[in-house]
Amino acid sequence: xxDEASDLNDRIAQxxxxxxxxxxxxxxxxxxxxGVSRSMxxxxxxxxxxxxxxxxxxxxxxxxxxxxxxxxxxxAGDDPVARLADQPLWRDPHSGYxxxxxxxxxxxxxxxxxxxxxxxxxxxxxxxxxxxxRIHQQVWVLDNTIEVxxxxxxxxxxxxxxxxxxxxxxxxxxNPTRRLTRYAVVIATLPSPWR
Length: 195
Hints:
4 helices; four-stranded antiparallel sheet; six-stranded antiparallel sheet; 195 residues; 24% helix
């Protein structure tokens, strides 16, 4: 494992521990809530696992945050600028897709931007459903083609196309081509109505 990957695994570990503690959840409670085993969560929190995007999405759902939030530094600053050199890159060990958190970490904005480089013929399926707070996202294709299935509806998106949807049902991504696909995901977290 490279030092950069190890550092990012450490960042994810700290962030998951911090979010779990802030919600007053034990390992067992989080495991029951998100469908990830207690032992896997423990490995992730110790930085001893390279979890897949699917596992991280389950954890994010159980913690009530967007997946992009797990890549933020635990004690993010208030700098409104995110320099390219400081934007973390993460590779999903299962599909090989690479994500980069573009947005400044820790800002007061309810919006996060992620850039994704999705390999040819790759697939990722997130089985999670509705969560609180409500999270909406838009997938904007920058280059090539991606198929995004939201619930039962499959959308083929070409360069320039944009799909808006709530994260309230299973979502899968598939690159049906033989070329790398690049797209941006813009994520907005809406406050709960009772807050």
